[in-house]
Amino acid sequence: MVVVLEKNIGDKLIEDIIKHLEDFGFAVHKSTGVEQIVLGAIGVKPDFDIRKVKVLDGVSEVYRITEPFKLASRSFKKEDTKIKLGNSCIGENEIIVFAGPCSVENEHQMFTIAEIVATAGAKILRGGAFKPRTSPYAFQGLGEEGLKLIRNAADANNLLVVTEILEATQIDLIGKYTDIYQVGARNMQNFPLLKELGKTNKPVMLKRGLSATIEEWLMSAEYILSNGNKDVMLCERGIRTFETYTRNTFDVSAIPVVHKKSHLPVIADPSHAVGLRDKVMPLALAAVAAGTDGLMIEVHHDPEKALSDGPQALLPNQFIELMKQVKLIAEVIGRKI
Ligand code: PEP
Ligand code: MN
């Protein structure tokens, strides 16, 4: 249930309304917008008579939100969520580019790629140190050694870091090195992990599950938000369909749908969506045209030797060309990169 308060309402009245809602059994989250204060009342019972709230002094409007997600919804928070990180802000006019290899492999690889992507205009260095591989025999990542390498390569090139977390026990370790926790597609519904990330104060990038509906994805974001962490960004990385010519199917429509339903920023990952390097550029252009707030692109200087996802990694010159082209599309729709 969303409770919109009257404009210019005093603090005492706000407290009274919150107290009433709590007495009715709701958990209350307050959102202070530019124009109005909105209360999100969580835990609505199907038979609750919302007129009990409508009649309270200081309440302007009350409505149930039909979607099961509340804190992630536009009705709860009208303004776009903006996530400030260093000199960058995710969710503003600038489209932020995350780039780097699939996996952190060694020092030379990380420093080479970090310099290439930073020079071309990326702001955030990606790379997994803990890899969720389909096969237990495939490269699983360098662990803490990999975290140190990505941090050092990022610092040397004035970049921020995003890296994947697989389980809640890794929060402190990964938190020492990263600026953003990445929750991968395979963990989108790892609810204990999401709850624990909700108690941290670092932004979380939540990738869409392999076969997740947009509603399920937003419900997963709700786990993080309802545990206190408001800095969540959603990453569309393709979903599994009947199509076999591409690795996954890039759901470009998810970008405007999420923007309509939610205030959270959306990042598009065409690399994992399509899985083939020659098709990453057209999907990146489509994502920018559709309004994405960020792009995540895999890049490798020697993809044939990459320990994971080489076939979808752009070569350095392809990444430079991609940056040029996405800038042109961004300008057409009044945004910048
Ligand atoms: C990744 O970003 O390297 C990754 C494993 O992605 P996803 O979780 O989308 O498969
Ligand atoms: Mn990958």
Keywords:
single chain, 337 residues, alpha/beta, Alpha-Beta Plaits, 8-stranded parallel barrel, 4-stranded antiparallel sheet, 18% strand, elongated, binds phosphoenolpyruvate, binds manganese (II) ion
The distinct bound ligands, ions and cofactors come out as: phosphoenolpyruvate, manganese (II) ion
Strand content: 15-25%
Main sheet characteristics: 8 strands, parallel, barrel
Low-pLDDT residue spans:
none
Structural class: alpha/beta
Detailed description of the structure:
- With 337 residues, this protein is α/β, with parallel strands linked by helices.
- The protein folds into 2 domains: 2-63, Alpha-Beta Plaits, CATH 3.30.70.1140; 83-332, Alpha-Beta Barrel (TIM Barrel), CATH 3.20.20.70.
- It is 32% helix and 18% strand.
- It contains 11 helices and 14 strands.
- It has helices spanning 11-23, 51-54, 107-120, 144-156, 171-175, 191-198, 214-225, 254-261, 270-274, 280-289, 316-332, and strands at residues 2-5, 27-32, 37-42, 59-63, 83-85, 88-90, 96-100, 124-126, 160-164, 180-183, 204-207, 232-236, 266-268, 294-298.
- An 8-stranded parallel beta barrel has the order 7-8-9-10-11-12-13-14, surrounded by 5 helices.
- Strand 7 (96-100), helix 3 (107-120) and strand 8 (124-126) form a beta-alpha-beta unit.
- Helix 3 packs parallel to helix 11 (316-332) and helix 10 runs parallel beside helix 11.
- The two termini are 37 Å apart.
- The mean pLDDT is 96.
- Phosphoenolpyruvate binds next to loops.
